[in-house]
């Protein structure tokens, strides 16, 4: 008979199977090693071993308010605006259950709720931005009754400071509770807004998850793993105020596009990707689109950004993510309790503060200006005992003001 004898044929099959098993084994080992590397690398961003000094406890005092103030924005020398929004309750139970927010004027340590002319929706404010050019205040708002929106207010300064509701921007691109922060673009007819969630929250917040469509439940279930492994899916949108038309502003994608700021000349936009602990620099193109020109790492995870008069960025810090409310609630197995500089750091007492990020220009190309970080300086860090968690931080006079996404009130600390 032609060919191999049966015994030789069995040997060939055994050798072939052995090689296949060997290849499969190596493939499984390679995947395991790669997965282990990713896990170890991403665990590093939780900062379990970080050491940091804190402001003296007596240097800070809490001003009680009905809601948290997730974001702050500079108004004029010695004054800023704070946006009140019951965010954590909204994300958990829906906006109908939330305490109505307000917009506050902060002058020194005086905090005043501002009257608003017109009929804005219920305020559940997230990121806010004041434009000294247009004298307008913008705010991301999470009111389910009227829909995810950017609220626009004219700032009036006759007989004191007040606001006039100038309109709302809504778009099919805006998923429920998915927007984060906003800035004005080249003029008052253009805004950019970040998307921090790749998947919408169900109607009624997390409480509505059990009755949500299967596709949405699966997307929400994947949110934490995708964030942990730093999969970039979120975007920045550009909207025209007069037409309410919005589009994706850039091909750049982010793990969780969070705080956004813009340069004084309105040519450069800075986007904080909080889970990635990275700042992306985007150049505004003539058509209003944004093109990435550079990026750099940050010494802490940060939240909101504000461009200062001296050209540096101020950011609210999350220096110990293992004690953050997000980790403690969404991934408690990754949370920890530690002692740092003699003070306990744990869930319910999450430190945070003000980071100043110096910017160094690295030249200009056809795409636009490029920047890298100069010096990153911790101006102040609070230990979390008076205000659990920080999302925004700005100087006002001789104080540093801190706001939180879930802890009520504003914290004033000696600078």
List the helices and strands and how they pair.
Blueprint: H1 6-44, E1 60-63, E2 69-76, E3 79-84, H2 87-93, E4 103-107, E5 110-113, E6 116-117, E7 125-131, E8 136-141, E9 149-156, E10 162-169, E11 179-184, E12 190-195, H3 214-228, E13 236-240, E14 245-248, E15 257-262, E16 268-273, E17 278-284, E18 290-297, E19 301-307, E20 313-318, H4 325-330, E21 338-340, E22 343-345, E23 352-364, E24 369-382, E25 392-396, E26 399-403, E27 410-414
Parallel strand pairs: 6-10
Antiparallel strand pairs: 1-27, 2-3, 3-4, 4-5, 7-8, 8-9, 9-10, 11-12, 12-13, 13-14, 15-16, 16-17, 17-18, 19-20, 20-23, 21-22, 23-24, 25-26, 26-27
The chain-level structural class is: alpha+beta
Helix content: 10-25%
Unreliable stretches, pLDDT < 50, 5 or more residues? 1-6, 30-35
- Could you give the count of β-strands? 27
Largest sheet: 5 strands, mixed
Terminal CA distance: 94 Å
Strand content: 35-45%
Query: In angstroms, what is the radius of gyration?
Result: 24 Å
Mean pLDDT: 91
Strand order in space, largest sheet: 6-10-9-8-7
- The helix count comes to 4
Shape: globular
């Amino acid at each position: 008979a032609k060919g191999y004898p049966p015994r030789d044929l069995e040997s060939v099959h055994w050798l072939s199977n052995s090689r296949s098993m060997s290849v499969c084994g190596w493939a499984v080992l390679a995947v395991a090693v790669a997965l282990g590397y990713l896990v170890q690398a991403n665990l590093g961003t939780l900062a379990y071993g970080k050491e940091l000094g804190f402001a003296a406890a007596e240097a800070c005092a809490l001003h009680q308010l009905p809601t948290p103030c997730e974001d702050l924005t500079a108004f004029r020398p010695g004054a800023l605006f704070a946006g009140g929004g019951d965010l954590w309750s909204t994300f958990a139970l829906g906006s109908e259950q939330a305490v109505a927010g307000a917009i506050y004027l902060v002058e020194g340590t005086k905090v005043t709720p501002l009257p608003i002319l017109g009929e804005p929706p219920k305020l559940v404010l997230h990121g806010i931005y004041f434009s000294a050019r247009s004298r307008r205040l913008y705010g991301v708002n999470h009111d389910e009754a009227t829909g995810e929106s950017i609220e626009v207010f004219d700032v009036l300064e006759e007989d004191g400071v007040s606001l006039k509701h100038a309109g709302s921007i809504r778009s099919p691109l805006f998923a429920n509770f998915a927007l984060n922060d906003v800035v004005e673009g080249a003029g008052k007819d253009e805004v950019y807004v970040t998307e921090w969630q790749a998947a919408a929250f169900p109607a009624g917040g997390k409480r509505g998850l059990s009755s949500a469509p299967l596709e949405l439940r699966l997307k929400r279930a994947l949110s934490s793993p995708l964030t942990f492994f730093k999969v970039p899916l979120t975007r920045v949108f550009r909207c025209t105020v007069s037409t309410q038309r919005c589009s994706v502003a850039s091909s750049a994608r982010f793990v969780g596009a969070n705080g956004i700021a813009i340069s004084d000349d309105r040519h450069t936009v800075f986007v904080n990707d909080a889970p990635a602990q990275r700042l992306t620099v985007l150049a505004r193109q003539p058509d209003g689109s944004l093109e990435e020109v550079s990026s750099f790492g940050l010494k802490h995870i940060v939240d909101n950004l504000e461009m200062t008069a001296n050209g540096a960025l101020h950011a609210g810090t999350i220096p110990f993510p293992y004690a953050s409310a997000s980790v403690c609630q969404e991934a408690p197995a990754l949370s920890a309790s530690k002692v740092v500089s003699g003070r306990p750091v744990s869930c319910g007492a999450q430190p945070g503060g003000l980071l100043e990020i110096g910017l160094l220009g690295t030249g200009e190309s056809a795409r636009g200006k490029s920047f890298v970080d100069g010096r990153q300086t911790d101006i102040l860090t609070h230990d979390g005992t008076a205000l659990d968690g920080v999302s925004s931080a700005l100087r006002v006079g001789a104080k540093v003001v801190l706001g939180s996404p879930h802890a009520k009130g504003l914290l004033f600390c000696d600078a």
